[in-house]
Design brief:
313 residues; 48% helix; Butyryl-CoA Dehydrogenase, subunit A, domain 2; binds flavin-adenine dinucleotide; globular; 4-stranded antiparallel sheet; alpha/beta; single chain
Length: 313
Amino acid sequence: MCYKMHLEAVGAISQIPTAYPRQRYIEPLLRGEVFAAAPGGEPHGQTGEDWTPVRQKVTTLPRVAAGLQIDHVRKSYVTSAGHATHYVMFCRVEGGRTEGPPELLMFKHDEVEWETIGAWNGLGMRGNSSAPMLFNGVVPEANLVGIELVDQSVPVMAKYMAPCQILTYGAADLGIASGAFEIACAEGDKRFPSGGHRLDNPINQRRMAEMSTQREAARALLHAVAAMADAGRATSVLPPLQAKVFCAEVGVRVTTDLISMFGGTAFAGRLPFERYFRDSRAGLVMGQANDVAYETIGTLLFPEHWSERLSGN
Ligand SMILES: Cc1cc2nc3c(=O)[nH]c(=O)nc-3n(C[C@H](O)[C@H](O)[C@H](O)COP(=O)(O)OP(=O)(O)OC[C@H]3O[C@@H](n4cnc5c(N)ncnc54)[C@H](O)[C@@H]3O)c2cc1C
């Protein structure tokens, strides 16, 4: 997940190779000096005690003489919090776009003050250090990702970040399913002193067959959409979101079935499946949470219906 968030964070700058980001970020990235994080959502507000739905607004940064002011902005979850060398913050900018995806502001960890709030003690994703963070400082406006682009009509996040951002969630979720499944292939085929193998059980054979089919279907969809994106044919977030929700559900389904198949041994943590099971649950609530993603998919499938409803017809 740390690597996924790094890819998400550097996805847009990697695709906008103009002089400023190339010299500031791409060259250090190629030298292995960048480990990036993406402080995005603020569902728990400035105090951490608030709550707004996951489609929340992000803070609008005021313009000041030296650039954009980040005034004690609190991000609710930041993977690799405190460990990253660079942050790509989701924000709005005074006088800028108020609708659609947020802007992206990139800065080095030593350009602003920051603190992490608490430690990560999540159900899963134990290594991910996803603590809330508080940022304070002023960052030059030149650090707005894509500010030098002539065509500003499409938000940078939509054009340069979204496919990588969404598909890498799917890839992480599929990786969880695949990792668990591969251990199951070896463990299931293990011969016990009694002479028995778990795979001898027809229910387990059926389970493995179904899981393998789910995994291949998820992989095929993910790769097809990734190829579309690479070829510049993913002009809508619909296919990436479909791949994301499917991979997240396959992750949960495979790891849940494996806990059943390996029974008390798995549940007791004497086999590594429970860790995959816990990690897989994050896939449903991360990124665009599956519930939210399905809502988006629904509106994208019937755009005319929704534009009429929203205009009151
Ligand atoms: C391990 C982990 C790492 C993370 N890392 C990062 C990170 O690096 N950067 C970052 O920006 N965020 C990160 N997040 C945050 C994550 O992407 C979600 O934004 C966050 O989990 C949502 O906030 P919440 O948990 O308070 O959910 P809530 O806002 O409480 O939502 C909970 C559920 O309510 C439902 N729901 C809420 N609002 C709506 C709506 N408008 N429409 C439909 N259904 C809705 C959905 O079912 C949703 O799953 C991370 C989360 C986890 C678990």
